[in-house]
Specification:
Radius of gyration: 32 Å
Mean pLDDT: 90
Order of helices and strands: EEHHEEEHEEEHEHHHEHHHHHHHEH
CATH class of the largest domain: Mainly Alpha
Low-confidence stretches: none
Number of strands: 11
Distance between the termini: 58 Å
Helix content: 40-55%
Amino acid sequence: MNVTATNHDEVSALLTVTLDKSDYKDKVEKQLINYAKNAQVPGFRKGKVPLSMVRKQYEAGIAFEEINKQVSDALNNYVKDNNLRLVGQPVPQPVEELNHNAEQLSVGFEVGYEPEFTIDLSKYEAPHFKVEASDKEINQSIENMQKRFAEQVPQEAIADDSHIALEISQVVEDDAEGAHNHPPKSIVVNAERKLAFDLVKGLKMDESVKVSKEELQNNEELAKELGFSKEETDHLHHNEIEVKVTDFYGLNLAELNQELFDKVYGEGNIKSEEELKARVKSELDEYFQQNADVHFVNKILEQINEKEEVKLPEAFLVKWLMFSNENINEESKAKEILESEKNQLKYQILEGKLMNDNKIQLDYADVLAQAEQLVRNQLAMYGIHHLSDEEVQKYAVEMLKDEEQVRQISSEVGMAKLKDVILEKATKTETRISHEQFLEELKK
């Protein structure tokens, strides 16, 4: 068995895998003998089927299966041994007919791979903001804790301080074709969701108002406040939704006392308002700083994407697009798609290059730790801060049973490690600002 490379240019080549009959003959023969021992053919006892009969029926299929396996293994090993970072997947050259009895077989594959280049992170520079939480933000966070454990107070009518429970369902027209099962949404709104609140604040218990699909499409903010994403709005089966008031109440905020401190952070961990404010400030500062670090890294990556030259194997990519997509039948269409995807592909190559050159690797422990942090973040949104490590890990393991979650979390872990490398090696211009100022920077 042998693999040879014929380079078209520095980023594409033809890899030819050559097999001698001796590479697969013995394995095919062994499988045929096993088939003969176990085959059940009318007129023959088990294990007594003539090998010639088994060979005639099964040899070609077994041979081609073994050939495909050996060709695939040889190709993968060549790519690995030569540290080729492929772009797309190998594209096999057309073969009219393979004769498994030939003394030698050759199969060719077109491949494209990333160019060789280096990225000097130290030559890239961007502002690195040190962001601090304001008293207003600290107080708002504490008020959210008080709301989390507040006492609901019945009201006779909806007031400006009301929290309104809504049931939102699609209105099925009498002449609607087809039956669709649309479970209603249940949400709670208050004055902070101004559009939704204004929509229902004049209603009484069990009264409702209807909103057209067109109105939701034209007012994305209202749709969002009513719990509809743009995609959900665009794919509503019916022309109206009904928004019904199922409950409303005021809130008596929980007092700032030891009982609340213990509910939020666990017994005895916070013992005064001063300690609470210090803890909240620390958490907000850490969260804001994470966002500021990501902002810095994104700025560096934008500069790298803009300034670094990356030669793409364009001729190969056109072939790959046509090979891997049955709907792309014309070269002109493949070139058009490639042109629209070039910048994203370049960005992915640069990101992969940075991770590879800085020896960034992922393992299950990294992914599990990130999943646990996501669980903690989600619980914190509901004011739950004192779940045990064992309970958090149980939720995280459950989360990782979803392949899409694993893919997403793995990507986040990789980017987190790359972020640390860029923070360490790129040049930072340190600037201390408030969170409000930082949000203005993000808008720019």
